[in-house]
Protein backbone atom coordinates (compact mmCIF):
# COMPACT_ATOMS: atom_id res chain seq x y z
CA UNK A 1 0.00 0.00 0.00
CA UNK A 2 1.26 3.46 -0.91
CA UNK A 3 2.30 5.48 2.11
CA UNK A 4 1.76 9.22 2.45
CA UNK A 5 5.02 11.13 2.83
CA UNK A 6 4.52 13.78 5.54
CA UNK A 7 6.70 16.62 6.82
CA UNK A 8 5.98 18.60 9.99
CA UNK A 9 6.88 22.26 10.56
CA UNK A 10 6.18 23.73 13.98
CA UNK A 11 8.27 25.79 16.39
CA UNK A 12 6.46 24.16 19.32
CA UNK A 13 8.78 21.21 19.89
CA UNK A 14 6.27 19.40 22.11
CA UNK A 15 3.50 19.53 19.51
CA UNK A 16 5.92 18.63 16.71
CA UNK A 17 7.23 15.65 18.69
CA UNK A 18 3.75 14.36 19.49
CA UNK A 19 2.53 14.75 15.91
CA UNK A 20 5.72 13.18 14.56
CA UNK A 21 5.38 10.22 16.91
CA UNK A 22 1.79 9.60 15.85
CA UNK A 23 2.76 9.80 12.18
CA UNK A 24 5.58 7.28 12.70
CA UNK A 25 3.16 4.84 14.38
CA UNK A 26 0.64 5.10 11.54
CA UNK A 27 1.22 2.41 8.90
CA UNK A 28 -0.33 4.62 6.22
CA UNK A 29 2.04 7.54 6.84
CA UNK A 30 5.78 8.08 6.42
CA UNK A 31 7.42 10.93 8.35
CA UNK A 32 10.13 12.39 6.10
CA UNK A 33 11.16 15.39 8.18
CA UNK A 34 10.48 17.67 11.14
CA UNK A 35 11.36 21.37 11.07
CA UNK A 36 11.23 24.05 13.74
CA UNK A 37 11.62 27.07 11.48
CA UNK A 38 10.56 28.15 8.01
CA UNK A 39 13.94 27.77 6.33
CA UNK A 40 14.27 24.18 7.55
CA UNK A 41 10.90 23.13 6.16
CA UNK A 42 11.67 24.70 2.79
CA UNK A 43 14.86 22.64 2.63
CA UNK A 44 13.01 19.46 3.66
CA UNK A 45 10.41 20.06 0.95
CA UNK A 46 13.12 20.44 -1.70
CA UNK A 47 15.08 17.35 -0.62
CA UNK A 48 12.45 14.93 0.67
CA UNK A 49 9.50 15.80 -1.65
CA UNK A 50 6.71 15.19 0.89
CA UNK A 51 3.12 14.68 -0.24
CA UNK A 52 1.67 16.68 2.66
CA UNK A 53 3.18 19.31 4.98
CA UNK A 54 1.67 20.42 8.28
CA UNK A 55 2.70 24.04 8.69
CA UNK A 56 2.65 26.43 11.64
CA UNK A 57 2.16 30.14 10.97
CA UNK A 58 4.42 31.65 13.64
CA UNK A 59 7.96 30.29 13.14
CA UNK A 60 11.50 31.73 13.22
CA UNK A 61 13.40 32.78 10.07
CA UNK A 62 10.34 32.31 7.80
CA UNK A 63 6.76 32.28 9.00
CA UNK A 64 4.19 29.92 7.50
CA UNK A 65 2.88 32.44 4.98
CA UNK A 66 6.40 33.15 3.77
CA UNK A 67 7.02 29.41 3.40
CA UNK A 68 3.88 29.05 1.27
CA UNK A 69 4.95 31.98 -0.89
CA UNK A 70 8.47 30.59 -1.31
CA UNK A 71 7.36 27.10 -2.25
CA UNK A 72 4.58 28.18 -4.60
CA UNK A 73 7.02 30.41 -6.51
CA UNK A 74 9.85 27.86 -6.66
CA UNK A 75 9.80 26.69 -10.30
CA UNK A 76 12.62 24.20 -9.65
CA UNK A 77 10.43 21.95 -7.50
CA UNK A 78 9.41 18.68 -9.09
CA UNK A 79 6.45 18.38 -6.73
CA UNK A 80 4.57 20.92 -4.63
CA UNK A 81 3.08 19.31 -1.50
CA UNK A 82 -0.37 19.87 -0.08
CA UNK A 83 -0.31 22.15 2.97
CA UNK A 84 -2.32 21.85 6.17
CA UNK A 85 -1.82 24.94 8.31
CA UNK A 86 -2.03 24.13 12.02
CA UNK A 87 -1.77 27.31 14.05
CA UNK A 88 -2.79 29.03 17.26
CA UNK A 89 -3.32 32.17 15.19
CA UNK A 90 -7.01 31.85 14.37
CA UNK A 91 -7.86 35.22 12.85
CA UNK A 92 -10.00 35.09 9.72
CA UNK A 93 -7.56 37.37 7.90
CA UNK A 94 -4.64 35.00 8.52
CA UNK A 95 -6.67 31.97 7.47
CA UNK A 96 -7.75 33.75 4.30
CA UNK A 97 -4.16 34.71 3.49
CA UNK A 98 -3.09 31.11 4.03
CA UNK A 99 -5.74 29.81 1.61
CA UNK A 100 -4.88 32.48 -0.95
CA UNK A 101 -1.20 31.50 -0.63
CA UNK A 102 -1.92 27.84 -1.37
CA UNK A 103 -2.94 26.16 1.89
CA UNK A 104 -5.54 23.40 1.59
CA UNK A 105 -6.74 23.27 5.20
CA UNK A 106 -6.49 25.58 8.21
CA UNK A 107 -6.74 23.96 11.64
CA UNK A 108 -6.74 26.10 14.75
CA UNK A 109 -4.86 25.01 17.85
CA UNK A 110 -5.63 23.47 20.23
CA UNK A 111 -6.46 20.60 17.90
CA UNK A 112 -6.60 16.85 18.39
CA UNK A 113 -3.71 14.99 16.75
CA UNK A 114 -6.25 12.54 15.34
CA UNK A 115 -7.91 15.44 13.52
CA UNK A 116 -4.61 16.44 11.90
CA UNK A 117 -3.95 12.84 10.83
CA UNK A 118 -7.45 12.63 9.40
CA UNK A 119 -6.92 15.78 7.35
CA UNK A 120 -3.63 14.41 6.03
CA UNK A 121 -5.40 11.33 4.73
CA UNK A 122 -8.38 13.33 3.52
CA UNK A 123 -6.42 15.85 1.51
CA UNK A 124 -4.13 13.23 0.00
CA UNK A 125 -7.13 11.15 -1.08
CA UNK A 126 -8.74 14.26 -2.56
CA UNK A 127 -5.85 14.94 -4.93
CA UNK A 128 -4.70 11.36 -5.54
CA UNK A 129 -7.56 9.26 -6.83
CA UNK A 130 -5.44 6.12 -6.80
CA UNK A 131 -5.08 6.33 -3.06
CA UNK A 132 -8.32 4.56 -2.20
CA UNK A 133 -7.24 2.16 0.50
CA UNK A 134 -7.54 4.68 3.35
CA UNK A 135 -10.63 6.69 4.21
CA UNK A 136 -10.90 9.38 6.85
CA UNK A 137 -14.13 9.44 8.83
CA UNK A 138 -15.32 12.46 6.86
CA UNK A 139 -14.51 10.83 3.52
CA UNK A 140 -17.03 7.98 3.81
CA UNK A 141 -19.15 9.19 0.92
CA UNK A 142 -20.72 5.85 -0.06
CA UNK A 143 -21.14 4.81 3.55
CA UNK A 144 -23.00 8.04 4.24
CA UNK A 145 -25.75 7.23 1.73
CA UNK A 146 -27.91 5.26 4.21
CA UNK A 147 -26.86 7.58 7.01
CA UNK A 148 -28.08 10.65 5.14
CA UNK A 149 -31.66 9.31 5.00
CA UNK A 150 -32.72 11.00 8.22
CA UNK A 151 -30.51 10.28 11.22
CA UNK A 152 -28.05 13.15 10.69
CA UNK A 153 -30.87 15.69 10.49
CA UNK A 154 -31.97 14.63 13.96
CA UNK A 155 -28.40 14.47 15.27
CA UNK A 156 -27.43 17.88 13.90
CA UNK A 157 -30.67 19.49 15.05
CA UNK A 158 -30.23 18.11 18.56
CA UNK A 159 -26.65 19.35 18.69
CA UNK A 160 -27.55 22.85 17.50
CA UNK A 161 -30.39 23.11 20.01
CA UNK A 162 -28.11 21.85 22.77
CA UNK A 163 -25.67 24.62 21.91
CA UNK A 164 -28.44 27.17 22.33
CA UNK A 165 -29.16 27.98 18.68
CA UNK A 166 -32.97 28.40 18.35
CA UNK A 167 -34.68 26.63 15.48
CA UNK A 168 -36.62 29.69 14.32
CA UNK A 169 -33.60 31.71 13.14
CA UNK A 170 -32.32 31.31 9.59
CA UNK A 171 -28.80 30.50 10.71
CA UNK A 172 -30.09 27.33 12.34
CA UNK A 173 -31.42 25.98 9.02
CA UNK A 174 -28.33 27.10 7.12
CA UNK A 175 -25.96 25.56 9.66
CA UNK A 176 -27.82 22.28 9.56
CA UNK A 177 -27.68 22.17 5.77
CA UNK A 178 -24.01 23.20 5.76
CA UNK A 179 -23.03 20.40 8.14
CA UNK A 180 -25.14 17.89 6.19
CA UNK A 181 -23.31 18.88 3.02
CA UNK A 182 -19.87 18.85 4.68
CA UNK A 183 -20.45 15.32 6.00
CA UNK A 184 -20.60 14.09 2.41
CA UNK A 185 -18.19 16.63 0.90
CA UNK A 186 -15.60 17.49 3.59
CA UNK A 187 -13.46 19.27 1.02
CA UNK A 188 -16.00 22.12 1.09
CA UNK A 189 -14.94 22.99 4.64
CA UNK A 190 -11.77 24.54 3.24
CA UNK A 191 -13.78 26.59 0.75
CA UNK A 192 -16.92 27.66 2.59
CA UNK A 193 -17.24 30.98 0.76
CA UNK A 194 -16.61 29.53 -2.68
CA UNK A 195 -18.58 26.27 -2.42
CA UNK A 196 -20.51 25.67 0.79
CA UNK A 197 -22.38 28.97 1.18
CA UNK A 198 -23.52 29.03 -2.48
CA UNK A 199 -24.80 25.44 -2.20
CA UNK A 200 -26.80 26.25 0.93
CA UNK A 201 -28.00 29.52 -0.58
CA UNK A 202 -29.21 27.80 -3.73
CA UNK A 203 -31.30 25.34 -1.73
CA UNK A 204 -32.95 28.11 0.30
CA UNK A 205 -33.24 30.61 -2.54
CA UNK A 206 -30.86 33.16 -1.05
CA UNK A 207 -27.34 34.48 -1.56
CA UNK A 208 -24.05 33.14 -0.22
CA UNK A 209 -23.52 36.42 1.62
CA UNK A 210 -26.81 36.11 3.48
CA UNK A 211 -25.98 32.53 4.39
CA UNK A 212 -22.63 33.62 5.82
CA UNK A 213 -24.19 36.43 7.87
CA UNK A 214 -27.01 34.23 9.18
CA UNK A 215 -24.59 31.53 10.29
CA UNK A 216 -22.36 34.11 11.96
CA UNK A 217 -25.40 35.44 13.80
CA UNK A 218 -26.38 31.93 14.92
CA UNK A 219 -22.91 31.35 16.34
CA UNK A 220 -23.11 34.70 18.13
CA UNK A 221 -26.42 33.65 19.66
CA UNK A 222 -24.87 30.39 20.86
CA UNK A 223 -22.04 32.30 22.52
CA UNK A 224 -24.21 34.97 24.10
CA UNK A 225 -27.29 32.99 25.08
CA UNK A 226 -26.31 29.35 24.67
CA UNK A 227 -25.63 26.75 27.32
CA UNK A 228 -21.98 27.35 28.00
CA UNK A 229 -21.53 23.89 29.54
CA UNK A 230 -22.46 22.37 26.19
CA UNK A 231 -20.30 24.86 24.31
CA UNK A 232 -17.29 24.08 26.49
CA UNK A 233 -17.90 20.34 26.20
CA UNK A 234 -17.83 20.54 22.41
CA UNK A 235 -15.07 23.10 21.89
CA UNK A 236 -12.92 22.50 24.97
CA UNK A 237 -10.97 25.14 26.83
CA UNK A 238 -10.70 27.40 23.77
CA UNK A 239 -14.41 28.20 23.95
CA UNK A 240 -16.33 31.15 25.29
CA UNK A 241 -14.92 34.37 26.59
CA UNK A 242 -11.44 32.92 27.01
CA UNK A 243 -10.51 33.23 23.33
CA UNK A 244 -13.74 34.30 21.62
CA UNK A 245 -16.18 32.45 19.43
CA UNK A 246 -14.96 30.37 16.49
CA UNK A 247 -15.24 31.45 12.89
CA UNK A 248 -18.02 30.03 10.71
CA UNK A 249 -15.54 27.66 9.10
CA UNK A 250 -14.21 26.43 12.44
CA UNK A 251 -17.72 25.96 13.83
CA UNK A 252 -18.89 23.94 10.82
CA UNK A 253 -15.68 21.88 10.81
CA UNK A 254 -15.98 21.05 14.52
CA UNK A 255 -19.61 19.98 14.19
CA UNK A 256 -18.84 17.93 11.09
CA UNK A 257 -15.84 16.18 12.64
CA UNK A 258 -17.80 15.41 15.81
CA UNK A 259 -20.72 13.88 13.94
CA UNK A 260 -18.59 12.00 11.42
CA UNK A 261 -16.49 10.48 14.21
CA UNK A 262 -19.63 9.43 16.08
CA UNK A 263 -20.95 7.84 12.89
CA UNK A 264 -17.68 6.00 12.29
CA UNK A 265 -17.81 4.66 15.85
CA UNK A 266 -21.37 3.52 15.36
CA UNK A 267 -20.37 1.64 12.19
CA UNK A 268 -17.55 -0.15 14.03
CA UNK A 269 -20.04 -1.41 16.64
CA UNK A 270 -22.40 -2.96 14.09
Task: Pick out its properties.
single chain, about 270 residues, Rossmann fold, 2 domains, 5 strands
In short:
This protein is an alpha/beta fold.
DSSP strand tally: 5
Overall number of structural domains:
2
The percentage of residues in β strands lies in 5-15%
Query: What would the average pLDDT be, to the nearest integer?
Result: 78
Measure the end-to-end span: 27 Å
Shape: elongated
- Elements, N to C (H/E): EHEHEHEHEHHHHHHHH
Low-confidence stretches: 129-153, 237-242
Supply the helix-strand structural class: alpha/beta
**Discrete helix count:** 12
Second CATH tier, the architecture of the largest domain: 3-Layer(aba) Sandwich
The helix content is 55-70%
Instruction: List the strand order in the largest sheet.
Output: 2-1-3-4-5
User: What is the C-level CATH assignment of the largest domain?
Assistant: Alpha Beta
CATH H level of the largest domain: which superfamily? Response regulator
- Main β-sheet, in a few words? 5 strands, parallel
Rg (CA only): 19 Å
Protein model, in words:
- The protein is of the alpha/beta class and 270 residues long.
- It folds into 2 domains: 4-134, 3-Layer(aba) Sandwich (Rossmann fold), CATH 3.40.50; 139-268, Arc Repressor Mutant, subunit A.
- 55% of the residues lie in helices and 10% in strands.
- The protein is built from 12 helices and 5 strands.
- A 5-stranded parallel β-sheet has the order 2-1-3-4-5, with helices on both faces.
- The two termini are 27 Å apart.
- The model is unreliable at 129-153 and 237-242 (pLDDT under 50).
Amino acid sequence: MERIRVAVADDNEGFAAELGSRIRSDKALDLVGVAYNGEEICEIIRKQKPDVVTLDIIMPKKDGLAVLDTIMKDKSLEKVPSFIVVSAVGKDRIAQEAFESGADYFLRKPVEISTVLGKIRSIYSKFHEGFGQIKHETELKEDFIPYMSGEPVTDISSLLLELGIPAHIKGYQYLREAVMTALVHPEYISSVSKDLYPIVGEKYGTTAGKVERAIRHAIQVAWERGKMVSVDRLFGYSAGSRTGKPTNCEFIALLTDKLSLEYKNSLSKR
